[in-house]
């Protein structure tokens, strides 16, 4: 093989590796965040208590649902 062919193969391999790596890492992160949500209802209650609000169950569920719906819109 000539030098030009080796360079061409190296560049194509690099590009294919980057594309495959992007999709594999994207799939992994989506799965990770579905299994481990970044914020839970207990965290919402704690934040509301720190802000001086009395966290009612209805309000906590409402905030949690709104955060989930924002996350679903990003997909």
TrEMBL record:
The keyword Zinc-finger does not apply. The chain crosses the membrane at residues 6-24. It holds the Pfam family UPF0154. It comes from the Bacteria. It is found in: Cell membrane; Membrane. One of its GO terms (cellular component) is plasma membrane. It is a single-pass membrane protein. Its main location: membrane. Keywords: Cell membrane, Membrane, Transmembrane, Transmembrane helix. InterPro entries: UPF0154. Belongs to the UPF0154 family. This is UPF0154 protein SAMN04487984_0436. It comes from Aerococcus suis.
């Amino acid at each position: 093989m000539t030098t030009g062919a080796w360079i061409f193969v190296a560049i194509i391999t690099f590009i294919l590796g980057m594309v495959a790596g992007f999709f594999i890492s994207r799939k992994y992160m989506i799965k990770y965040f579905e299994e481990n949500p970044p914020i839970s209802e207990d965290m919402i209650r704690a934040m509301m208590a720190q802000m001086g609000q009395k966290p009612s169950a209805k309000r906590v569920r409402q905030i949690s649902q709104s955060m989930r719906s924002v996350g679903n819109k990003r997909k």
